[in-house]
Design brief:
The chain is built from 13 helices and 4 strands. The radius of gyration is 23 Å and the shape is elongated. By secondary structure, it is mainly α. The strands form 2 sheets. A two-stranded antiparallel ribbon has the order 1-2. A two-stranded antiparallel sheet has the order 3-4.
Length: 262
């Protein structure tokens, strides 16, 4: 149950609070969203809460990247082994990868521009939103949380920052894929061997193809949790301010610019 039932009288809404998370539109920099899509297709759409499209592009990136050996070729190129990089690439998969990669960047940029316009129109309508949602499996509500804590939890394990701010869908998706990346890259096994002083064995057990996914998912989780904590705090303040104005502010109250309040 929600503390406010939407009657669909507004053309656009700035936010919706549900048991699986708080979804909202707000002003974003299209270049930053496009950059995240370039860093890892799907991330830009997830930042926009376009989950289905983001999940599809993310899984496409993982599957086609592995089949084309793109990460392995990147590592060889970083080491200056250009011939090896050329040899490991599978062009049958690589030529499928490029169009979708470019689409992810373009579409996330285009969608950000559109959603910025939607936000400005929704702000002009100033329609009421719900701030409390109670269901059989979860409870969610608007409140203020610390962006610093969101970053700290995301640094420990990506996805925990999203759980802290109740972005359940993103948190579940990130945590599941992090486990997959850790398992197939043998990263935790390599860290354990490193602590035991077995440096060469630690390096040899790593799978570089899977390992190269991990920095991207860490970076995304930190940025996503920080940005959404800040925006959720703004939404809470906006909703609180509107409620206080409607219920406690005198209708005759006016703020006159340039004059001191008495």
């Amino acid at each position: 149950m929600n503390n406010y039932s939407n009657d669909n009288t507004a053309r656009r809404y700035v936010a919706n609070v549900s048991v699986v998370g708080t979804t909202q539109v707000h002003l974003r920099n299209p270049y930053i969203i496009g950059w995240w899509s370039a860093a890892f297709p799907g991330f830009g759409h997830l930042l926009l809460s376009k989950y289905i499209r983001g999940y599809m592009l993310f899984m496409w990136e993982v599957i086609v990247n592995l089949k084309s050996h793109l990460n392995l070729a990147m590592i060889y190129s970083f080491q200056g082994k250009i011939d090896l990089a050329k040899d490991v690439l599978d062009t049958r998969w690589l030529l499928m990868y490029i169009p979708v990669y470019l689409f992810a960047i373009w579409d996330s940029y285009r969608t950000t521009v559109d959603l910025n316009k939607v936000f400005l129109l929704a702000e002009h309508e100033k329609h009421r939103i719900n701030s409390f949602s109670l269901g059989a499996i979860e409870i969610n509500y608007l409140d203020k949380r610390s962006p610093f804590l969101s970053v700290i939890w995301s640094l420990y394990i990506p996805g925990l920052g999203q759980l802290y701010i109740h972005r359940i869908l993103t948190a579940f998706f990130v945590i599941i894929w992090l486990v997959i990346f850790f398992y197939f890259s043998h990263a935790l096994e390599a860290i354990s061997l490193l602590f035991l002083g077995k440096v060469q064995k630690s390096i040899s057990v790593l799978d570089p193809q899977w390992l190269l996914f991990i920095p991207s998912i860490y970076g995304f989780s930190i940025f996503d949790s920080y940005m959404n904590t800040v925006e959720n705090n703004k939404l809470y303040e906006k909703e609180q301010r509107k409620y206080l104005q409607e219920h406690y502010q005198a209708s005759s109250f006016r703020i006159i610019k340039g004059q001191k309040a008495k």
